[in-house]
């Protein structure tokens, strides 16, 4: 029988997480080898840490409550007997064999799940609350995830003795070979249910439609991921759930092209504005934002005007990137009589040779040519 971890911490079996934390702190102060000079202080301190390690982790604690054994230290999967325990002294040989063997690994814990989240550039600019709807194995509402029906209870699996693995011995010319496989009876959980819950068939989880709201921070990049803890697949019979991994997918925008934290945009300026310089207004990426673009005197077609701080808000920052406005200089397709006169005067002033004013009949001919 394993150590009484509750006794080591000096708490009752139904102690809350908070009680356990408090008990650990007060004992640790007294037992710390720097303070306590008795011979076995270090040993006791180690024991206290071990007890706290198990009882402060809900998954490890429930495994300990169920089986009375201390879950394998260092292993990622709580509640499992360490391979070295399973194989006794031969662990080192057979654990390497086993790892290469690649047999099925029991997963009492739920797996992580991935979903994609489409976002508009405007949502990324302001940050957004988004609801995600997806299907997952959720904790069974009928039994609260325990997998037990009315007056049902969990018992140690008789086939594997609670380890979740079955060791078989094969005789080969090299001698006896041991292989470990996931216990078929308990599916690797180490426990069987007497009178299982009818709703989930003793699994503690059922397929269900889940809704979760995520906060998307402003300035997030395409393909960046957000993790929602505990919203992946529910664990087997109340074991820890996996996480939901949300991958952001930012939709292309009609006017803006994002380049890191900068935004490229296009603006039109008349040839007169381009020649003389002008302030024009364009839409910004934030709601109702108007951005003034200062077209410099003598601006050329496709020239880029940079507006500092008018780009995308930076991720987890107060600052913003820049807006890079590509100016498209417009040549009028049609001139009024007066406009033409003014331009002809300008041409004369600049010494440019231009076409003579054409009669309406000549213009008509141009259309058909
Ligand atoms: Zn159930
Ligand atoms: Zn079993």
UniProtKB/TrEMBL annotation:
Zn(2+) 1 binds at residues 140, 143, 197, 200. It holds the Pfam family DnaJ. Coiled coil: none annotated. It is found in: Cytoplasm. GO terms for cellular component: cytoplasm. CXXCXGXG motif repeats lie at residues 140-147, 157-164, 183-190, 197-204. InterPro entries: DnaJ, DnaJ_C, DnaJ_domain, DnaJ_domain_CS, HSP40/DnaJ_pept-bd, HSP_DnaJ_Cys-rich_dom, HSP_DnaJ_Cys-rich_dom_sf, J_dom_sf. The keyword Cytoplasm applies. SUPFAM superfamilies: Chaperone J-domain, DnaJ/Hsp40 cysteine-rich domain, HSP40/DnaJ peptide-binding domain. CDD domains: DnaJ, DnaJ_C, DnaJ_zf. SMART domains: DnaJ. The keyword Mitochondrion does not apply. Zn(2+) 2 binds at residues 157, 160, 183, 186. GO terms for biological process: DNA replication; protein refolding; response to heat. One of its GO terms (molecular function) is zinc ion binding. Its main location: cytoplasm. Its cofactor is Zn(2+). Binds 2 Zn(2+) ions per monomer. It comes from the Bacteria. Keywords: Chaperone, Cytoplasm, DNA replication, Metal-binding, Repeat, Stress response, Zinc, Zinc-finger. Participates actively in the response to hyperosmotic and heat shock by preventing the aggregation of stress-denatured proteins and by disaggregating proteins, also in an autonomous, DnaK-independent fashion. Unfolded proteins bind initially to DnaJ; upon interaction with the DnaJ-bound protein, DnaK hydrolyzes its bound ATP, resulting in the formation of a stable complex. GrpE releases ADP from DnaK; ATP binding to DnaK triggers the release of the substrate protein, thus completing the reaction cycle. Homodimer. Belongs to the DnaJ family. The J domain is necessary and sufficient to stimulate DnaK ATPase activity. Zinc center 1 plays an important role in the autonomous, DnaK-independent chaperone activity of DnaJ. Zinc center 2 is essential for interaction with DnaK and for DnaJ activity. This is Chaperone protein DnaJ. It comes from Berryella wangjianweii. The gene is dnaJ.
